[in-house]
Amino acid sequence: MGEARYTNKGFGLKQVIGGQVVRDYASPLVDRLRAEGFVLVAGDLTFRLAQEFGFCYGVDRAIEYAYETREKFPDKNLFITGEIIHNPRVNARLVEMGIRFLDAEDGGTSCAQLSAQDVVLLPAFGVPVATMARLREAGCIVVDTTCGSVLNVWKNVERYAKEGFTALIHGKWDHEETRATSSRALLHPGGQYLIVRDMDEALVAAAYVERGGNAAAFCVRFENAIAPGFDPDVHLLRLGCANQTTMLSGESLAIAERMRQALSARFGPEEGAARFRAFDTICSATQERQDALHALIDGHTLDLLLVLGGYNSSNTTHLLEIGLAKGVPTYHISDAACLSSAEAIRHQPLGASAETISRGWLGEGPRVIGMTAGASTPNAELERVIRRVASLRGVEPA
Ligand code: SF4
């Protein structure tokens, strides 16, 4: 019997690879912190951790399948279509294991060069329909780690398209997940989508729904965020809202409500309601991390908050946004090396595309340091950060 060419279930090798995964990403210190009420004291520093943080179920599964795949096919070329998750250390570890990026900028293998002997991993974000078709054509073995919560968004977007609704997706058009999700809208004839990054962009779309406008200017404004052939005079009249799973949930809900109001203003409440659909597709892991951070900040006085995660990680950036909105001095760092000294911290401010260095982040005297980590951050990284902060003060975690 030949080898299966596609799996989204892994290879049942969890027992075999479990030790490796624990060695690479787990942290006894963070486990202890969790067991002891999410608080740890080191000298005059108190670390308070949000009660939900770090690896989510989708990331756990994607990493597990990547390790299982390496184990299952030790001698085959093993590729991944892009970052498996948005964490530089995790991606570097996969490269060390011989997993290569497809279409890498350094002239790596392209889909067209794949053979039936090759194995390709799909990341937790999923891939666009066209990429999937190219992989099928190549005949390679595909190991699909697309998260179930992402599949749930796809299901809704496809249903909208089938029923003649344009998918209005709250997300980032250049994010892998949103590119994959929006491609789903085109699976049905006449399917359309519009991607809005935030409320400001949603307001532009809402104003067009209510009062019309210059269609050409609208299409230029959303150049990268609409499907080919998008016509705002036609495709903004029946809307189904969805979102990238890792957006700020409050903003997603507000955007859906604003679009509902716009259709109601244009067509009257009854017809407006018939022209509107919404389905909250924020994943539970994202929601729980955001809720836990709210609870941490509301429940304690924090001198500062460290948000740990890749700079291109959408869910991590939203944790930064929450900290700042609540008035806590908050720093988004990618790893422990960002803590240059007790004086200087390298971090990426909200909305920036590069790091900056701030001074006086830790201050003097007793400090309560809030901490959280995005869904793609290993506990081992969190431990390195805690130990680094403690060492800058010359103390050890108790
Ligand atoms: S953040 Fe949510 S959607 Fe993304 S991988 Fe994790 S659980 Fe899945």
Can you give a write-up of this model?
The chain has 398 residues and is an alpha/beta fold. It folds into three domains: 25-56 and 284-392, 4-hydroxy-3-methylbut-2-enyl diphosphate reductase, catalytic domain (Cobalt-precorrin-4 Transmethylase, domain 1, 3-Layer(aba) Sandwich); 57-147, 3-Layer(aba) Sandwich (Rossmann fold); 149-278, Cobalt-precorrin-4 Transmethylase, domain 1 (3-Layer(aba) Sandwich), CATH 3.40.1010. 43% of the residues lie in helices and 17% in strands. It is built from 15 helices and 16 strands. The chain has helices at residues 14-25, 28-35, 57-72, 88-96, 129-138, 148-162, 176-184, 199-211, 215-221, 232-235, 249-267, 269-274, 284-299, 314-325, 379-392, and strands spanning 6-7, 39-42, 45-49, 78-80, 99-101, 119-122, 141-144, 166-170, 193-196, 239-243, 276-278, 304-308, 330-333, 344-347, 356-359, 367-373. The strands form four sheets. It has a five-stranded parallel sheet. A five-stranded mixed sheet has the order 2-3-16-12-13, sandwiched between helices. Strands 9-8-10-11 form a four-stranded parallel sheet. Strand 14 (344-347) and strand 15 (356-359) form a beta hairpin. Helix 1 crosses helix 3 (57-72), helix 2 (28-35) crosses helix 15 (379-392) and helix 13 packs parallel to helix 14. It binds iron/sulfur cluster (SF4).
